[in-house]
Amino acid sequence: MKKPLRLVPALLLILAALCLSVHVAAQPAKGLEQSPAGKVLEAGLRRALGEAVGEHFEVARDRLARRSNWHGGQLYWLAHLRAKRSGEFYVRYKYRYKDDVRPRDPLYTFVEHRTLVRVGPRGCARQPRYNSVCVGDAVMLPVLVNDYTEHTFSVEAQPFSPGDGSTEKSLRDMEVAGLDREPVPNPAAEFLKYVGSRAHYSPHRAMGYTMTFHATFEAVKPGSFNLAVGTRMSAAGTQAPAEMAAAGSVPVVVVAPGTPVTVLSFKDDVHGYGERFSSQGGGTGYLTAPVILQAGERLTLQYLSYSRRGREADGENKEALEASVKDQRPAITLLPFRVDPARDFNEWLVEFLPPGLAPRPGAAKR
Questions:
Q1: How far apart are the first and last CA of the chain?
Q2: Which range marks the domain in which residue 80 is found?
Q3: Whole-angstrom Cα distance, residue 270 to residue 281?
Q4: Dihedral angle at the C-alpha atoms of 27, 32, 36, 39, nearest 10 degrees?
Q5: Is 272 in the same domain as 307?
Q6: Are 46 and 59 in contact (CB under 8 A)?
């Protein structure tokens, strides 16, 4: 009679996996995100980051996430750092680099990523696209894992500098100075007030110029929608066809002042170094499409651009060209809120956008 299979070796394997730490390489195979080894890896990274930033941030949640093959297939650990206090923080992480192209003679031994996060008091005027948030907000920090090892974390902190109030007022005044304020039809008026538009002339060194046209809005009420801004010349009738507008639209979320939000870190600086080689000045950008605003904050979008080469026969000058904004008024289209998760890094952020902010039924009708 055969003896039953002993389970001790399998038990030993499980115990060995539980002893893995943050210094153990993350296996690049698919499925690590949901495996026991992946959970152990997450726990080690969470512990190491929490010990480094715990005075300033709470590691509110975290998970392993792999980019699609279309986006490179890299494995990241996404840590949500919820700000506990005001300040300016350089959050750093470092790992031992593995050079798959030159394994015996790698260019780098270690790679360090540095992310600047500015945190103002609760309810401050945030700038999510520049890692400027408020106490209570969460910044999603992407940590590159792949099969790199020995991840460590650190943070440098200094007091928050609110800046000169008069300077901030001057900058806000400059945003709207010189705008052409003639009203245009604005179906988004319930959520975004149209402030005005302007044209900007940029001369070319080799003769000629580029003209860009921008429209400025101010958030007035919480809501979520897609905003498309074009020109009436490019429109069919008074507005662009729905499919054209949707393709070029911007997802916008407006929240009440003081409402906590989650944003994806805008970028980090990357420094690789070893015994004989060092590089600095590179970086990784984490672009997302949604724009998050508080009521009272402004949004400026480009709606037209064109270039001319050489001299203009009719002798148009800068002043005349910039005054042409009166002939190139923006055409605004309000659309239902939609974020494409396959675009840029939207997939990491989309589930954390504030819920329940969709426009009223019929608000997006043209």
A1: 80
A2: 27-162+261-282
A3: 7
A4: 90
A5: no
A6: yes
Whole-number percent of the chain with pLDDT over 70:
79
User: Is 220 found in the same domain as 267?
Assistant: no
Strand ranges of the sheet holding 291-294, from the earlier edge strand across to the other edge? 291-294, 250-255, 223-231, 330-335
Buried b or exposed e, range 92-102, using 16+ CB within 10 angstroms: bbbbbbeeeee
Please check whether residues 121 and 148 belong to one and the same domain: yes
Per-residue model confidence as pLDDT tens digits over 240-290:
455 555 678 999 999 998 899 999 999 999 999 887 777 776 788 999 999
Give residue-wise pLDDT tens across range 207-236.
889 999 999 999 999 999 999 999 875 444
The residue written with tokens 């009166």 in the block is 326
The answer to whether 136 and 260 are in contact (CB under 8 A) is yes
What is the distance between the alpha carbons of residues 69 and 25, in angstroms, rounded to a whole number? Answer: 21
Domains in the chain, number: 2
pTM: 0.79
